[in-house]
Each structure stands twice: as C-alpha cells, then as structure tokens.
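Hi R.,

Here's the chain you asked about this morning:
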Amino acid sequence: MEDSETFTQLPIRMDPTSKAITTTSKSRALEEELATLNSLHKSLLQLESPVPPPPIPVNQKRSANITKLRESGNAEFRKGKHSEAIKYYGLGLQMALGRPLWEPSGLVRDEVAGLYANRAQAHMALSNWVEGSVDAEASVEAKKGGNAKAWWRKGRCLVEMGRLEEAKDWVGRGLEIEGDEADLQGLLKEIEAKEKKA
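And the predicted structure, written out as tokens:
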C-alpha cells in the first residue's frame, strides 16, 4: 500500500495552443485519465460560456425563512400546540436540506441540528418516544459537539421506551463529547438507579 503522504511527479505536458494534456509515461491508467480530462475540456470549450459562473453566496432569504419557521415552531411549542410545532420544524428542515450543494455545509449542519433537536422535544411532549429518539439522534449526527440537549433528549426517549442499557451507553458517549454536562450526568444517575431496581 502506498503512503498517502508521498508525492509522485508525473511526466505530463500541456500543449500551449490546444491546452491538451499529454504524457510520455507508458501508464495506461494515466493515459485514460488524461483522455477523459481532455474530452471534458473540449466539451467545456464548446459551451456558450466556457467558464461556469461562480457560486452565489449564501441565500439570505432562505436563511431568514428557515429562522422564521424555527421561531414559529418555538412559538407553537410554547402555546402547547406540539403537532403544529412539529409541522413548522419539518418545513424548516425541508428548506435547510434543500440548500444548494455549494453553500457552506457547516451552515446546513447547524440549522439542521437545531431543527431536529427542537422537533425531538415536540415529539417528546406528545410522548412520541420513537420519533423523538430518531430526531435527537439525527441532530447529534449533524452536530456532535455543543449539542448536549440532543444527547439528553435521545437518552430520555430511550429511558421512556425502557431501553436502559442503550440509554446508558448513549448518555455515556454524550458525556465523552460534552464533558461533565449536568443534565447528562443527572440522566445517567437516574438510569443507574433504575437498573438497580430492575
């Protein structure tokens, strides 16, 4: 197996007029790759605009709409209308996940993590433990660190479903990432107490 840190200089040249790349190497794989590259270059030259346009910056309107949906969900949650809150969070998730691929992935992860965590809380308020567990885990997958609420919510859902061993494992992993977070510590003690009674 080759060391990924090793640099191998390949004997390639670019024709100044056609911009085609050629090689003096006898490597069939290299020749095939260069043929594909040259073909792509030719096809781009035949387009009306040979240079693709630069990606547009983050769509501020979309960001504002996602924030508005999250805030609307939060307002409905505070009113006790948990089903309505779930709908708003779901719409916000659709919009966040529909962002073009050239927009920063960190922005998408932050938006999605918050929306999933909030939707998990709304599901928990309705005693939808499975749905809450799935959303809390999706939130953690989007953003592992700095997301103690999602770690706690998944752990609480597992406890409510009677899956104490999984809950203990999950909360333990959460504590490894979040440090000595008080809510997670409290949930771990609660799980251990329930295990002793069982």
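The mean pLDDT is 89.

Let me know if you need anything else.
M.
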